[in-house]
Amino acid sequence: MRKITLLGLFMSLFFVCNTQAQNKKKLELSDSNKEYLRVNPERGVCTSYEYNNELRKQGKLSTNEAFEKAIAKQIAKDKLDAANGKATDVLHIPVVVHVVHNGEAIGTGPNIRDEQILAQIEVMNEDFRKMAGTNGASTNAAGADSFIEFCLAKTDPNGNVTTGITRHNGGQASWAGSALDAFKPGTQWDPTKYLNIWTATLGAQDLGYAQFPQINNNQITNPYAGAASNTDGVVMGATTFGSSQKFAGGNYNSPYDLGRTTTHEVGHWLGLKHINGDGVDQNSDTCQFDDECADTPNQKLQSSGCPNNQSSCGSIDQVENYMDYSNDSCMNTFTNDQVARMRAVLNGNVTNRSSLVTKNAAPALCSLPAPSFIITATNSPVSIGAGTSGAVFNLNFATINGYNTNTAFTVTNGLPTGATATFNPTSMNADGAFTLTIGNLAGVTAGSYTITVSAAGTTTKTVDVVLTIGAACATTNSTTNNVAIPEAPADGTEGAPGVSIINIPVGNNVIITDVNITLNITYVYVNDLRVELTSPTGTKIDLIKQLPETAGVGNSDNFTSTILDDAGATAITVGPAPFTGTFSPQNPLSVLNSQESKGNWTLSVYDQWTGGTGTLNSWSIEICGTPALGIEDSKTTKSFSLHPNPSNGKFNISFTTSNSGSAVLTAYDIRGRKVTEQHFENNSNVFNQTVNFNTLAKGVYILKIQTGNNELFKRLVIK
């Protein structure tokens, strides 16, 4: 039989998309800002109006009409409360500042120093409290104290001590438009508990922007009500953050160097509009547009500099208002109506901001955490072979803020049946290491076991360790044998294949760690053949594809007891025929690792040359793996929802639970190793949260959800 070797030319085109591509996310400037920059080309502008309009177009933010209707109702309620003698509460808001840089040293470029950040928090409090003796003491008769204060967080979302300042190398020099939105989710702290502020180098003439409040219709358990939660906060240009008056050693851009530009953006975050009315066509001669505040005179165009007695709509413009574009040095006023709007955003449950507030006292998040402790596992997971009698986990006990209570260790969940647990020491009250020995394991079934270690002192904390006991392997032989391999319809053209299917029942389901195939095929001149394996999930692998036309290989006959194993020392392309023994396939079987084994495995044998026929006599599949965790087990509640799944790492989880309080989400890879964990506070029996595991590689994971003493598990697929 004559053969022709066909050489193909394959070209791969790779499109590399990195975060710099996000800079294409330009925001179309409003008519107001366009006109302002035409008249004042040397100045900068706030892009909050543009940013929030884009969110509204995407359905990620309340409409302006819905917001105004809800906020007016709350303002009326607040005024009635005040008329009835209710005292004005001081509303405290915890703040975290995320400094985004491009690898610069602290104090260089956008990697601003802590002192510059501390100066900004000080300015915000002076401004929002109309503090006497400071630049925030209003000179306008309409000026009002908002009774809103800000503090840098001292406790992070995991309960650890923090400065309230985080630093992140964003890997690019600047962030134009809304580009930073792609970076925010991976750095954001819970926006229902912290005001998140990001500082970075922004696009040309962009001073900053803020996400507007979302009307939540009193949905306390889901305050964002479909809005964009993982981008919520304020974005500031690094040079428009802080005060050169308070810390001269910072990186500033005059005349936006006294902290009032940030006050302006936080005003937007609390529901204020620009003093001249947002999105107005300033080429118009009309002055009908305003900011929904009766005590701020209508103004045709945002101010520039510090003009005296400027009048644009028949009255003196309020150039000292924080929501104008005046220089920082002449800003000093929030009016009573503006204060009413901001407090309405924070009062009651009208918007997603109310959960941030602590009334008349410093928030717990702005105080050092109480004396406590942390336990961590330093060598989990531990893997042992089947029949091994014991395993040892190394753990660490660390105290926080002077904790010295004797704390006892126990295993509270997950210990394999018949196994024993021994701690050394059994309790601790100071920093140090301890061990957990799991014994009597010789007869324990192979698989992965998640074991919960509890430490009980003034409070009880837990950590999971994972024990993996040697994977089990099982071989299944084909029952559909002696399958004819149809002849190709023409030279170089494949016809229908000869097909044989092996079914792995659900009861034998495992998470795959290794797959090997054994073939018995009778065929003359095996170079004609392509042998394809298809997994139950649809993954296709060309195990053999037109072997090289060399003596003893492609131009030879038959596959007899041919074992295809990725670990084979000899490639199947080398031979020799009839390939009895172990060979590595042309394409690896390892792509099947982490898949489930249950279902139909299909072996298809194709002929691509006329003049010959053959037979797939038999085949078998050996699958090694760990027992698959049943999703439909007793721990899974009927209310549980995880979608989308598969996902790119961002998904929504919702369920009802008998335990309010914290929820812990832990992801384990298929070998039982803990790869990531996130903690969420939940103050009701309904949990509904968007989760970002976007740092995980593609694959199958086991997701453990723990609320109180209850656990439920789901399989999570990252694509």
Could you tell me the number of beta strands?
35
Helix content: 10-25%
Over the alpha carbons, how many angstroms does the gyration radius reach? 33 Å
Query: What are the low-pLDDT stretches, counting only 5+ consecutive residues below 50?
Result: 1-24, 629-637
Highest-level CATH class of the largest domain: Alpha Beta
> Which homologous superfamily in CATH is the superfamily of the largest domain?
Collagenase (Catalytic Domain)
Q: Let me know the largest β-sheet.
A: 8 strands, mixed
The assigned CATH architecture of the largest domain is 3-Layer(aba) Sandwich
> Strand-residue fraction?
25-35%
The number of helices is: 6
> What is the subunit arrangement here?
single chain
Taking the alpha carbons of the first and last residues, their distance comes to 45 Å
Query: Which structural category fits the helices and strands?
Result: mainly beta
Q: Give the CATH topology of the largest domain.
A: Collagenase (Catalytic Domain)
